[in-house]
Fold each of these.
Amino acid sequence: MTKLKWAGIAAVVLVPLAFAGLFVGAVGKGDTALDSIPVAIVNNDSLQTTTAADGTEQNVFAGRQLVTELTGSKGFDWTITNEKDADAALKAGDVYAVLTVPSNFSTSIMSLFGDDPVKADISIRTDDAHSYLTGSVAQVVGQTMTDTFGKAITAQYIGGIYSSMGELGTSLGQAADGAAQLSSGASQLSSGLSQYTDGVGSLSYGLSQLDDQTAGLGTLGSSVGTYTSGVTQLSGLLSSVDLSSMADAVQKATLQAYLVELSKAAAGGAQLAAGASGLGALHDGISQAADGAYQLAQTGPALVDGADGLASGATGLATGLQSGADQIPATDADAAKSSAEVAADPVTLSVSTDNAVSQVGQVVATFFVPLGLWIGALAVFLVLRPVTRRALTSTARNGRLVAAALARASAITGAQALLLTALLHGALGVAWSLLPATLGFSLLTAVAFTAFHYLLTIGLGRAGLVVSLFLLAVQVTSTGGIYPIQLLSTPFQLVSPFLPLTYAVGGMQGIISGGDAGSVVVAALTLLGFGAASVVLALFAIRRTRRAGALGLVPATLG
């Protein structure tokens, strides 16, 4: 065998290795691949201000905190932008997802610590017109971040519960102190009342004695009256007697009369003395009454203090219990259930997809329909010769030879495109309203790929088909659509925009997903240019081949 044949065999042997090696090399970025996927962040959150129990104010900007955590973590190439620019970037495919923090995010977070808690929602928007898997990846990453952030919020909430329980304990302690003061005040009041009772008893007893002793005052009055009468009589007698004539005769009698009167006076004096003795008892009774009154006066302040202590204790008890009651949340069953649900999952994630493709078959078809058309074109030239020896030696113009060969091959690849389009709509559920677009784009792709394979075979013979297999391996590993090309290694990202399969997949994806028509038009024009360039190069190739044929150097595969 010739060296050319050995080279062809070696190339065929290396084809499987090329496929495997290219796939391994394409995904060589490993765990850091996600860091290269561009995603936009729109933070619409508004600043909130809270007032602590001590009156100090604190600014709360939960959205900024979330954005800081997102941009500082692994996963996606985050870009902070505004809503308008983010929408434009998503539509153009410059970013694969837009994460939006709503304006009420901080308000929702703070509501967890209030009476009417609500969940804080974060939204992620993707576009299936550019990448199908990005939405799923973004959802996983976003859910992970919201779970992490939500756990931090839940931890703060639980910490607040324990803090409130401590404050409740303090309030109940104050209530206990108030109860102790109440008990002490009650004891003081009881003691004061006891002393008051004793004082009143003493006063009553003293007054009773005073009443008993006052009865002797009547006897004192009678004795004093008798004494006064006797003295009066004595005075009368003495005034009526002529003391000068009767001095000697009556001295004895007078003295006797004085003795009688004096006896009467003595008797009255005895009664007066008895009355005076009653006055002493009266004095004692009055003294006891005074002592009782004094004790009552001394007991008064203690009684007042006891009453004050009782009132103060009652006030402290009421204040403490009210404060404790205020810190106990409502026990309504529905409210408790709602609060528990919010506390368990305070931050939620909602995912929306522009131009959504719901069926997996359609997702796969956007890639495998163009891939099938490439393989179909390759298979056509395994069966058909690009040109015969007779045609090469004829007088026909090069353009006519190329057109004739392409017409034959395109008829076959056109039939392939028709069958694949029928599969899309009949089996995979693509809307029949898209038939003109899917069929037209499939036919354009088939013709472009046919022209390129004609170029390979007319220029390289059968070796061109081996080159087609190598190019297929490169394109399969470098073409996005199902996954973002940022997941691939840098060399594959660089070559992706220059590969025809990239535009074939992108155009078909845009049609099925209902994405931007402009991207479909760009893909169609690129494929048209690719096919036209292949035809032009094929004209040069057939001219060279005809010259070689004239020299007898035409490859056997063309004969």
Note: The two ends are 18 Å apart (CA to CA).
Amino acid sequence: MSGHSKWHSIRRSKGILDQKRGALFTKLAREITVAAREGNNGDPDMNFRLRLAVDKARQSNMPMDNIQRAIDRGLGKGAEASIDEIYYEGYAPGGIAIIVQAATDNRNRTAAEVRSTFTKGGGNLGESGSVSWMFENKGLITIEFPDSQKFDPDDVMLQAIDAGADDVEVDGNQVEVYTAFEDLNTVRTALQGAGLPITNVEPLMKPTTPFTPDSETTAMAALRLMEKLEDLDDVQKVYSNLDVSEELAEKFAES
């Protein structure tokens, strides 16, 4: 399982994905606002990033009024302050690379919070470009089969590759399909058309070379820092090149 998958699983196990609804809706709304503004289009059918954001909001039972309000904000309607998307780069203990994706209406506040969190976690905030060269912009499609449903991993992998996927990873009943960023929508459409049970579609920053720390202490410190960063109100996602064993991931999830 990839480092990204492990972090996602840890977040789910520790309940980070099931945060208070108000905080969750705020993060979802900000992604919708940024997507509408960046795409300069409030129609999800004409703006793929917005489509993904709206789909995720609906899956979380976000009211349509909230969704529309977030779209309008991205298009400059209303008196609310604009939301800016910002990326921060830094290092966790052991030199582990971290990228923080934030969406904020106050750059100074967010920068101060991110910097403080890095420092308290034993890491340091770096300059723009300090670690981003270690990552690639990719698309991720997660397919998850019910426990009761048998499937042929090789067949799913072939379907994904034929649809244009770059890489496919299988872990139990879950299949992760990685694509070039620009091919994400095309591959998603093809796999949906094939009737595969897609549970998540998202762009992400995938490390080109995952890094395994030489000690459990270092890995745990990095995981704690990532958790603290993702807890910040203005932070949308946290990416890293950290690679840990399944056993260590489970140990942290239970801590």
Note: The longest helix spans residues 21-39.
